[in-house]
Structure formats: structure tokens, C-alpha cells
Amino acid sequence: MELEKPVTGDIVPVILFFHGGSFAHSSANSAIYDTLCRRLVGICKAVVVSVNYRRAPENPYPCAYDDGWAALKWVNSRPWLKSEEDSKVHIYMVGDSSGGNIVHNVALKAVESGIEVLGNILLNPMFGGQERTESEKRLDGKYFVTIQDRDWYWRAFLPEGEDRDHAACNPFGPNGKSLVGMKFPKSLVVVAGLDLVQDWQLAYVEGLKKAGQEVKHLYLDKATIGFYLLPNNDHFYTVMDEIILLLTVFLIIAMLRFCSPMGSGSSWYRDDWAWLLGVEGLVQHLAGLGSCVFGTSTSKWHDCGCYGLMKALVAA
């Protein structure tokens, strides 16, 4: 395949994916992550770039962030990924566990450097802090994860002598960077109800809200870590529906920006979450018409992908 030659003029979402593994294991070549990325390609009809970042303890902080940042710059500079509609690369960042942590930190660099990321999607992101939370105490040793494991991974990754209130671990803790006034990407945070570090994930959601950032979180009460790596479970398809919906909404926004003679500065256009949720509601309503639009239900959005969904809705 000649990757330097565009195969379509459509707006195609580009997902920059960061695998999990607590900064210390797994890779883009791991079967579970290769399979997940292939499923994202098939379901979302997106280009997926899976990043092989360096791992701890041999390569501690900030190596994984540096590699993630290099990958984002590479993706943003590829001419064959740009849409003919608006000459932009429509980038979303997705990561699970440590990959979700990397998404947050690469997004910070993107904002500072002016690279537009349309959305962050964090699946069971790996955050923490010095305090022992209720979920850590309640779920320690259950459902595959222990506090001892978490502590070791953080010691392996963080700079020598730093504790878990380092900004890399606790982004909204005492040493975190303020996001107030920053144009941070809109975020979807997926939290598993049986994940030991769920309290830190929910604290991350609250930190974004308090900083005035736009965030939506999906709490799956009976899900364990890595549920999205398992085939054909209801939790997986719930998350895929949310991801397709999010990508579709932002593709519609991109089309509105491009097609409006007044551009994004026009009075009807608003780049805030309340307005976007209104568009999301419209998407859900039209998709809910079922056979009138697709001949199927919203649970089958993955059959047509986000661009196919957008075109079907526009045609409707």
C-alpha cells in the first residue's frame, strides 16, 4: 500500500492509540492491543496509529511522554492523513491504563504547541496519589490488581526520590499543573466500577471540571480493568457506541466549521460542551429513528462507523 497517497477525500478520524501496561509491560505488538486497534479500525472506520513507547524501569519518566509527543507531531505532519475538505488531520488520542495517563500529558504539550487534538478518550486511566482512597482499600487484591503492584509501577516510572503526588501520577494534586484558562481537548473518561484506582479516575474527571474543561465520563459499575480487551461483551459495545458518538459529533462540527461561510466565529456556532451535547442529542435522536436512518438500532452504529453515521444522518 502506498501510504503517501490519499485514498479518500472524506474526513477520516485519526486515532493515536497508547497501549496500557502500567508503563512497564505490553507493547503495540502485543496481541491484545493489536486486536483492539484492529477492532477500532473496523468499528470506527478510522485510521489508528498505535504507539510503541519506551517502558520503565529502564526508561522512566518522561520517556513515555516524549515518545507520545513525537508520535503526535509525526501524525499531525503526515500529508496523506489530511482531509481534502479542510486540509487538517482530525486527531483523537485514545489510551488505556498508562496509555490514558500518556494521553493527558501529551495533550498538555499539544495545547502549548498549538497542535489541535479534537478529543481525548481515556480508558481506565492510570492515576494515583499518596493518599489511600476508599476504592484502593476496598478492592485491594481483588479483580487482578493490588496496591503493592501499583506502588511498584509508580516507583519504576517516576523520577528517583519522587512520591505519588508527582504531577505525572496525580495531575490535579499539590504539584499538578493548572488547566484553568487552557484550551484542553474535550475528554471522555471511562471508569470501571471494579478498578482499584477508580477514585483517582473520578478525581481526574472532577479536576477537569473544576478547571473549566469539558469532560464526559462513563461509569460501568460491574466492569473490571481491561474489559475492552475481551471480545463480545456488553461493556465493550457500550464504550464503542460512546466513542463512535463522540467522533461523529466532532466530525459534524468539523463539517459545520468548513461549510459555514462565516466559519467558527459565526453567531450560531459555539465551541462549548453544552452546545456540542445539543448536537450529540440530535445525533442520538436521529440515530434512534432506527430503520428510518439505518434499518437497524443504535447498538449497531459500529456497522457503519462514525463517518458513515454522519453521512446517514445528513442524508436523513
UniProtKB/TrEMBL annotation:
Belongs to the 'GDXG' lipolytic enzyme family. Residues 15-228 form the Alpha/beta hydrolase fold-3 domain. The lineage of its organism: Eukaryota, Viridiplantae, Streptophyta, Embryophyta, Tracheophyta. It comes from the Eukaryota. Keywords: Hydrolase, Membrane, Receptor, Transmembrane, Transmembrane helix. PROSITE patterns: LIPASE_GDXG_HIS (PS01173). This is Gibberellin receptor GID1A. GO terms for molecular function: hydrolase activity. It comes from Vitis vinifera (Grape). SUPFAM superfamilies: alpha/beta-Hydrolases. Gene3D superfamilies: alpha/beta hydrolase. The chain crosses the membrane at residues 243-260. InterPro entries: AB_hydrolase_3, AB_hydrolase_fold, Carboxylest/Gibb_receptor, Lipase_GDXG_HIS_AS.
